[in-house]
Amino acid sequence: MASSYPSLTRALAEALVDVLRFVDGSEDEQMDQDDAVRVMEGVAHGVSALTGGQRQELVGLVGEMAAAETDPDRREFLLGFPEGFGLIDGGC
């Protein structure tokens, strides 16, 4: 079976975004909100440990994903992902 992703990195980025989008949008009945916060903070901590080049790569992948996304809600999540997870500084 052929992969629909050009690389393992892209496949993992897609999976990460989908999981985080689910966690972010989950209701109390779907997921304990304390657990949801721990997951989101854990990912933010993990990406904070990436090198500058790795961060740039992930930001680029997420940007490509957003540009190709046809679902407006997922596109909005993708566009906010780099700043929301500390990959870029949002500035003031």
H-E order: HHHH
Structural class of the helices, strands and pairings?
A: mainly alpha
Shape: globular
Sheet of most strands: none
Number of helices: 4
Are there runs of 5+ residues with pLDDT below 50, and where?
Answer: none
Mean pLDDT: 89
Report the strand count.
0
Which range does the strand content fall in?
under 5%
Question: What's the helical proportion of residues?
Answer: 55-70%
Tell me the span between the first and last alpha carbons.
47 Å
Radius of gyration: 14 Å
Describe the secondary structure blueprint for this structure:
Blueprint: H1 8-25, H2 33-48, H3 52-68, H4 72-84
Helix pairs in contact: 1-3, 3-4
Short key terms for the protein model shown above:
92 residues, mainly alpha, 4 helices, globular
Notes on the structure:
- There is one protein chain.
- This protein is mostly helical and 92 residues long.
- It is built from 4 helices and no strands.
- It has helices spanning 8-25, 33-48, 52-68, 72-84.
- Helix 3 packs antiparallel against helix 4.
- The protein is globular, with a radius of gyration of 14 Å.
- The termini are far apart.
- The mean pLDDT is 89.
In short:
With 92 residues, the protein is mainly α. It contains 4 helices and no strands.
